[in-house]
Amino acid sequence: MPLIETQRLCKEYSGKQVLKDINLRVQNEEIFVLIGPNGAGKTTLLRILDLLDEPSSGTVLFNNTPVNYSANAKLALRRRVGMVFQQTVLFNTNVFNNVAYPLKVRGKNGNAAERKVKETLKMVQLDGFESKNALKLSGGEAQRVALAQALVTEPELLLLDEPTANLDPKAVSIIEEALSRVNRERQTTIIMSTHNMFQAQTLAHRAALLLDGRIEKIGTIREIFEVPSKHLASFARLENVFSGVSSIVEEGTSLVDIGGELKLEAAFTKLGKVMVYVSPEDIILSKNPIVSSARNTFKGRVVEVADLGPTVRLKVNAGRVFVAQITKRSFKEMQLNVDSEAFLTFKASSVQAV
Amino acid sequence: MENPLLEVLHITLLSLRVSGTAVLIGALIGVPIGTFLGLRQFRGKQSLMRFVDITLRSIVNTFMGLPPVVVGLVVYLFLTASGPLGPLGLLYTPTAMIITQLMMVIPIIIGVTMSAVGSVEQAVREKALSLGATDTQAAWAVLREARMGLLTAIIVSFGAAISEVGGIMITGGNIRWVTRTLTTAIVVEVELGNFALAITLGIVLLVMAFTINIALTIIQLRGAKR
After folding, report:
1. Rounded to an integer, what distance in angstroms lies between the CA atom of residue A61 and that of residue B114?
2. What is the largest CA-CA distance in chain A?
3. Structure ipTM
4. Looking at the complex, does the CB of residue A292 fall below 8 Å from at least one CB of chain B?
5. What is the pLDDT of residues A87-114, one digit of tens each?
C-alpha cells in the first residue's frame, strides 16, 4: 500500500514553475531517494510532503486520503512525520532538550520521555552529549542531533533533505547506518534527497531523478544511471566513476578497460559493459611504485589539489583522472604539488561495480 | 552645594530611575510589537497587509534614529501649560523625562526585537512545526531563540537612554534636586567652569554604564551557553 502519494503535483513560486506534474507513490517501509541537481525542486517537494508548503495544484495523499490543509489536520499529519532539513537548525539549549522537544510539544515528559531521548541519542552515537550546548557541536554532530530529533517520536515517515551534504565521513556513515536501521527495525518509510549516488545506491530501494522540476525517471539506481550521463555528470558526485568493458580473467577477477590505456583489475566477475567506482579514500598515493598485494598500480601526474581541512583531495591524471583523498599530514610529508608525479595504488576489491 | 556627595548620589539615582523606568516600560511595549512585526506570519498574504507591514517597518526604522532633542521638543509641546496634556502638570518632572526617553527607546526596542525575531523566524518556526509543534508552540520557540536579541535590545536602548541629554534637558528642565541627571548636570557644570565636578560626573556615568553592561553581557553569555 502506498504510504504517501502525489498526484499531478505542481508548485509555482512567484511565477516560476518549481515542480511540474509530480506523480509519486512511495510504499510503506520503502527507502525512496530523490536525485537531482540544485534547483531541481527536491527541497520544495520534501517541504510539500511535510506540509510546510501547499502545492499550487495537485494532491498529496497519505494512506490514500487527500491531505486537508486545516491547522489541526496539518498538525496531526506532521506528528506522524519526521523531517531533517539540509540546513541544520537546532535550538539554543543542550542536546537533551533539543531531542526532548518533539516529545515535549506532544505533552510527553517524565521518565519514559527521558529514556526515549537517551535511546535515540545512542542510535546516532551521541550518548554522553546530553548536557552539551547544541550550537557548539560540529556540523556532523549537529546533523546527528537533528536526525535524533526526527527519530525520537518514531515517525511513520522520515523526510530528509540532503542529510549528509558537506559532513565528515564518520557522520555520514553513522547517519546512513541509523537510517537503514530504523527502516529495518521500525519499518520507517524514508524519503530523502541526495547528491551522492553511492549513498543512493547503498540505501535506496527506488529512486526518482528530478530535473528542472520534472520527474525524469523513476526506478532502481541502476535504471537511473542509464539516463544519458551528461545529465547525471552535471550534478551527481561522479568522481572515480568509469564506464568500461569488462572481461573475465579467471574466477573472481575481471579486467575492466576504462579507456586511456587503463585496465582495472576488479574482484568481480562480469562480462561486457560495466560502470565501476573507486572510492577516493581507498586510493593509496605514493611517490614511487610500491610493492603490495594491491592489484592496481598506475603512474600519473597531480593535476589539482583541494584542501578539505583535515584531508586533502587530489586529482591525478593517469590516463583517466582519479580523485584520491589523503590526510593533510601525509600530503605534507610527501611534498606533493600540482604537476608532481605520483603513483596510484588500490586493491581489486576497491573497484566496485555500480 | 550643601553636600556635594549627597547631590551626586541623588543625581546618579535619578538618572538610573528615569532611564531604567523608560527602558522597562519600553520593553513591555516594544517587545510584543517587535515580535509581532518580526513574526510576519501575515507577510505576502494580502497586498494591504503587506503595505501596512512595510510602512510600519519603515516608520520604526526612521524613529530608531530620531534625534532626542526633537523628541524632547515634541513631548515639551504636549506637556507645556498650553499644550494638550498641559493640565496634567507633568512638565519639568521626572515623569516628563521618563516619557521623553520612552518615546526614544520604544522604536529602538521594536527595531532590534523585530530583526532578532525576523532573523530566526522562518528556520526556527518551520523546524518546530516539523517536530510536531502547534503554531503557538512554534511562536514560543522563535521567541526563545531570539532571546539574545531581546537582551541586545535592552542593552542598546539603556545605553541610548542613560547617555541622552537633549531631550530630558527640554522636558525636565535640569532643576537641582528635582530633575537634574548625570548628563544634564555635566552640561551645567561645564558651562559654570566646574570642570573637576563635570569630569567626576562623567566618570560616574561611564562606570555606571559599564557596570550595567557587564551585568547584562554576563547574562547574555550565560544564556548562550545554556
Report:
1. 38
2. 68
3. 0.74
4. no
5. 999 999 999 999 999 999 999 999 999 9
